[in-house]
What we know:
alpha+beta; Jelly Rolls; globular; WH-like_DNA-bd_sf (chains A, B); Crp/Fnr family transcriptional regulator (chains A, B)
Amino acid sequence: MSDFEHGPFSRKLSAFITLSEAESAVLASLHQRRRKIAAGRDVFQQGQLGQAAYVLSAGWACSYKILQDGERQVVDFQVPGDFLGLRSVLLHVSDHSVVSVTDIEVSEVLLSDLLGVFERTPRLAAAVLWAASRDEAMVVEHLAGIGRRNAVERMAHFLLELGARLSLVGMGSRAGFDCPLTQYLLADALGLTAVHVNRVLRQLREEGLVAVKDGYVAFEDYERLTEFAGFDPAYLDQPGPLLK
Amino acid sequence: MSDFEHGPFSRKLSAFITLSEAESAVLASLHQRRRKIAAGRDVFQQGQLGQAAYVLSAGWACSYKILQDGERQVVDFQVPGDFLGLRSVLLHVSDHSVVSVTDIEVSEVLLSDLLGVFERTPRLAAAVLWAASRDEAMVVEHLAGIGRRNAVERMAHFLLELGARLSLVGMGSRAGFDCPLTQYLLADALGLTAVHVNRVLRQLREEGLVAVKDGYVAFEDYERLTEFAGFDPAYLDQPGPLLK
């Protein structure tokens, strides 16, 4: 189980809680039912009943909603260490769909698994609540972005957020990160058209802030980009664990 | 404590969990530090460190974000039974502000209070996670609304959501609900101008769907409004508690 003790899920939760050996072992027990899913498959769909959640251990996923008229709104992307559909386990009916963006590896987590974890180590209940709060804070940022940021600031903020999330699990830095997202996915996340995404990315590159090319996001001037986007990563990481 | 055992917080959580007497007593213990706050006051502000959360037992509140350029995006409104700033307790730095819309009554909840609850009754940890998931599902709906619904559908969906939330705590029905929200607050929640809100409300009234007047929202044709907005209340309530 040692690979999971230092896997992205533990690594991410460690930002909130200093994990004891017993707590790490309990977390590792959530990785018993593992599945590999190829890129482009629905992991679960909006409207499904009694859905399980998943912990993503490798690859990228995308959560989205289909509206009445068939239009899609991307809610967020998930990277290693994130839950897929944690909300769906608790809401009885899943309010969203999740699709694999790349080939992914997941571990299935049932409501009974979560309750078992909470009974054994109540501190982990707080850690899971932290993870859910962090997910919500990201959706709030996306709402504020679509509601109040212009397209260029919105894209800049979004790329910085992804970079900070990936850094936390060792997959990114202030230099940049590998990014499998197409312009269509970015467009559906940011409320733009693919043509508009292309124009916005060109503007950010011409201003020497960030360059997106061949599946890599290169932060060319991290400080200036952060200032431009008004990005404060406090909702994603902490100066040290709140629960020692 | 009996008034809290049947207060809006217990009543709301009862949608998810069949509360035992012991669990009801633990919930009631969260109402020890009570405060009254006048209308129009900041309960806490974005950027505050080590913020407490609150359970709202009377009145309406509003959570919002201030963007870099000073613009405001309303994230959601809170009604009795809701948490204020649950996220802020866990994120170390509060990512949003909360203001009282009316005079309100709240009970302060610290991270240590939550941990105490989780230790005593792990099932309540799942119930709090459910409440957080429901809050997140609402923000997701608001994101989908601003991203993909037109202004009239967006308003219709929003009013139906508020009605369903208030019904769960005995403050609304399919006939309608008392609503203290101004057109300015509605505008900042829905990404519209106050003038646009006025036009949208007139359109909904002229179509015989919903009438907003003198602080009351009257659903004039609940079924047709629900169909028009594509509203499915599954994310707000459940056919019965998931945890018996």
